[in-house]
Amino acid sequence: MTGVTILLCSENIKLIKEFYEAIGVTCHEEQHGSGPVHFSLEAQMEAVEIYPPRKQVSAPVILRFNVEDVSASIAGLSEKFEESDFLVASLEELQTGMKAVVKDPDGRIVELFQPYPR
């Protein structure tokens, strides 16, 4: 198995950290040797999947976070950011769960997904 690390590069790493913390992701400050100070997102990578383009957004990369409650994640974002700055597609019910699409302050598309219990 090959390990995968996704690097989110940004000129304003503290703002990006605040965005991901607002959706419920824990972030830790790190520095490896003399490298730059950065933040590590505490999340388990479940898969890297190759999909055809999404109907709602045209983006080459979509970050998908499984969250306990999509509505709570949106509320957390609304406490720190203007909804018009982050909301791409409102809450939608799917066969497998609930989903909303947002963008982080650097414009990366992020799906918030709340899977239904199996």
Q: How would you describe this structure to a colleague?
A:
This protein has 118 residues and is α+β, with helices and mostly antiparallel strands. The protein has a single domain (13-44, 60-115), classed as 2,3-Dihydroxybiphenyl 1,2-Dioxygenase, domain 1, CATH 3.10.180.10. Helix content is 21%, strand content 31%. It contains 3 helices and 6 strands, in the order αβββααβββ. The chain has helices at 13-22, 70-80, 83-86; strands spanning 26-30, 38-42, 62-66, 87-93, 97-103, 109-115. β4 (87-93) and β5 form a beta hairpin. The radius of gyration is 15 Å and the shape is globular. The mean pLDDT is 92.
Feature tags:
2,3-Dihydroxybiphenyl 1,2-Dioxygenase, domain 1, globular, alpha+beta, about 120 residues, four-stranded mixed sheet
CATH topology tier name = 2,3-Dihydroxybiphenyl 1,2-Dioxygenase, domain 1
CATH class: Alpha Beta
The backbone outline, from C-alpha atoms, is: globular
> How many β strands by DSSP?
6
Order of helices and strands: HEEEHHEEE
Secondary-structure arrangement, i.e. CATH architecture: Roll
Q: What would the average pLDDT be, to the nearest integer?
A: 92
Mind sketching the topology for me?
Elements: H1 13-22, E1 26-30, E2 38-42, E3 62-66, H2 70-80, H3 83-86, E4 87-93, E5 97-103, E6 109-115
Parallel strand pairs: 3-6
Antiparallel strand pairs: 1-2, 4-5, 5-6
